[in-house]
Design brief:
Length: 493
């Protein structure tokens, strides 16, 4: 097998977009999954290529497994991104990643990388659960075993190797402060509201819980030298399948074990609040703004909410992908209703943002059959997603005196999945607790009321709202009694 590397690529007559000999590291990226490769890494390559500023090479870090390091390091960081549309696809080689640190095997190297004075930006795509925060308070979850392990390590966070992203950033900042390495900006790129503010709070919480002698000076240094801008990121990136790898190999004549596929669309809105220099991302279409909140909110409540609803409905009906699910008229109709009638009225849209057009484009993007975005992937980690994507819309609608029935279906179909899926197959960090809550209950109203006691997702006021609970129970009763066929009949009636 002839692997993708700079040499093999050159031998095949293709050129990289960047002069790798001149490229120096400027970014450390935590969480190097497909989304990072198709979004942050590709956009950063474009920005370097457009400006000849080659100081933004990326040191990528994997957090949970060595896979990406094993895929990309033998390829000197190179990988392909294949953009898929219904009737065409195009593949490019991305060369902005210099190397990958296996955070699992050598977590200390991550702290070293963040403390490197050539680095002035840390980007993160670690998914919702990677933040290890308590959604009720928006604070670091001090009961989380991994957080506890990072905090209790002998000698404080700098003299050992934290394994959580927040612990790594905190230790890296402490080392930068002590080593005089200069200002740095931490850019969260996960689907969380106010993701920058959240990251800042969690890093502060971590440092407060791991006190050291120079904490007062460190806190002042962080306030002056570290920024945590919020961002809104968007691009659908399904898991890469073995067929995808074979297709890229046929196209390139080289084997790329780190290949990713993505939809053509991407968007990145970034709060313009950086401590030092930053990549010239604005040159290639990244939008900088003073206020990202309306963008984040709109994307979470429209795109991500509809995605989650369709994922649970798709699993219920036995569909493999989001595209198949949204092609079902019953499901397309309820998703459209949820975002247009329930979510949109709850939003203050950013200037220039056409709400109805956005809703239409989201459903069209979902319908891209070439993407193969699995329902299972989008349905994963529901306990981390529903409270952010669905419940705020429901609360706002209830406050307006409306009953958000379409959003209630997202909750009911998630609950039905929790109650009917073996714990080992429920891909969710709270799987064991959720399944235990539902266990032993058959009656829909009991299952619903048990799951509503899960306070990391549902607050007591919501759980006691008769209109919300009634709407969820009604859907649950229908699903339990008549399955997806009965549900579809109802949705089309
Ligand atoms: C999806 C997102 O997996 C999920 O939960 O809703 O990853 C979605 O594809 C992206 O946010 C699109 O930008």
């Amino acid at each position: 097998m002839n692997r993708l590397t700079p040499d093999s690529l050159a031998r095949s007559g293709r050129e990289l977009a960047l002069d790798r000999a001149q490229m120096t590291p400027g970014i450390v990226h935590l969480g190097s999954g497909g989304f990072f490769r198709a979004h942050v890494a590709a956009v950063t390559e474009d920005a370097m290529a457009a400006t000849d500023d080659l100081s933004w090479g990326i040191i990528a870090v994997t957090q949970r497994s060595a896979d990406v390091a094993e895929q990309l390091n033998p390829q000197c960081g190179l990988f392909t991104v294949t953009e898929r549309q219904p009737d065409e696809s195009s593949t490019r080689v991305v060369s902005s990643v210099l190397s990958v640190i296996d955070g699992h095997g050598s977590p200390g190297a991550i702290v070293d990388a963040i403390a490197d004075r050539r680095i002035s930006v840390v980007t993160l795509t670690i998914t919702e659960k990677g933040y290890r925060f308590d959604a009720r308070s928006g604070r670091l979850d001090l009961d989380d075993p991994a957080v506890q392990a990072d905090l209790s390590a002998e000698g404080g966070p700098e003299r050992r190797s934290p394994t959580t992203a927040v612990g790594q950033i905190a230790a890296g900042l402490r080392r930068r402060f002590r080593g005089g390495a200069g200002a740095i900006t931490v850019v969260s790129c996960d689907n969380l509201p106010a993701n920058g503010r959240l990251t800042q709070t969690l890093v502060r919480d971590f440092l407060a819980a791991a006190p050291d002698d120079d904490d007062d000076e460190l806190a002042v240094w962080i306030d002056t030298n570290v920024r945590f801008p919020s961002t809104m990121v968007d691009r659908m990136v399904p898991a890469t399948s073995p067929d995808d790898l074979d297709e890229v190999e046929r196209f390139l004549g080289l084997r790329d074990e780190g290949a990713v596929v993505a939809e053509p669309f991407w968007q990145w809105v970034v709060e313009d609040d950086f401590a030092g220099s930053r990549p010239p991302w604005e040159r290639v279409g990244v939008q900088f703004t003073d206020d990202v909140a309306p963008w984040e909110k709109a994307k979470l409540r429209l795109l991500n909410a509809a995605h989650s609803l369709l994922a649970y409905l798709g699993l219920l009906a036995g569909y493999e992908t989001i595209a198949e699910t949204v092609a079902d008229p019953a499901f397309e109709r309820i998703a459209a209703r949820m975002i247009a009638d329930e979510a949109l009225p709850s939003l203050t849209l950013p200037r220039g943002f056409d709400g109805p057009a956005y809703c239409g484009s989201v459903l069209r993007r979902f319908a891209n059959p070439a993407l193969g975005h699995s329902c299972a992937k989008v349905a994963s980690d529901g306990s981390q997603k529903l409270g952010i994507r669905i419940l705020p819309t429901m609360r706002d609608a209830l406050a307006r005196g409306e009953i958000p029935t379409a959003s209630a279906l997202a909750v009911a179909s998630w609950m039905h999945r929790v109650a009917t899926t073996p714990v080992a197959r429920l891909d969710d960090p709270a799987a064991a607790e959720l399944v235990e809550l539902a266990a032993g209950h058959e009656a829909p109203d009991e299952v619903v009321s048990e799951l509503l006691t899960y306070s990391r997702v549902f607050d007591a006021k919501f759980a006691a709202n008769p209109a919300a609970v009634g709407a969820i129970v009604d859907w649950y009763v229908l699903i339990a009694a008549e399955g997806s066929d009965g549900l579809k009949r109802k949705l089309l009636s």
